[in-house]
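Reading group handout, session on sequence-to-structure problems. Before we discuss, look at one worked example. The prompt was deliberately terse, the way you'd type it at a terminal:

> structure Protein-S-isoprenylcysteine O-methyltransferase

The input record follows.
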Amino acid sequence: MSLWEYLWGKVGTQFSILKLGIASFAEIFSHAATQLSEMVLAIIFFHSSEYALAIAIHGRSNVTLTSLLISKHYVLAMIFSLLEYFFEIILFPWLKEFWWISNFGLAMVVIGEVIRKLAIITAGRAFTHLIKIHHEEHHKLVTHGVYRFVRHPGYCGFLIWAVGIQIMLCNPMSTVAFAIIVWRFFAERILYEEYFLRHFFGSNYDDYVRRVPSGVPFVK
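And the output record:
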């Protein structure tokens, strides 16, 4: 073998390795593009539909931008989840390649979205983003539809949706963090909200509580 043939063989080998590396790199970022696109679409649909339904049910004059449900803490949480995602895809790209986990998370996102929107549509004007501390004429105790199965389907749906987003991204740390933080938020909110619901509806609500679970794990 001549020197030229030897060098050409070496170049060919290195070129093949480079092509393989580029192909692997491209595949990783193709996965990332899919997962991040699903996240963005899920978030846009969730918040825009919340706002649109609020306007449709309560009227434009009675709805503010708070119905988009975008708070400072929410934005910070999503930024944290994105930082985790990019950190892991650079250092541990194999973590993002468990497609059965990612697809399971996507299914959770869809299920959570459906449950929450059914809750809003079923409750109608009785569904508000802010807890009512004074009884209003249109405020009725809703126990039909999805409310036959859980008392707080809106909270149940959001919990499934929020955790599902992180599972879809294969974010282990954010999955645990979102599950704990969102659960704790709703656990405390339910206690506060149901104090007023018992005041509004009396024994009817007590009977409802005995028959139907809250919809949030470990919250009676």
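Points for discussion. First: DSSP finds six helices and no strands in the chain. Second: The longest helix spans residues 3-58.
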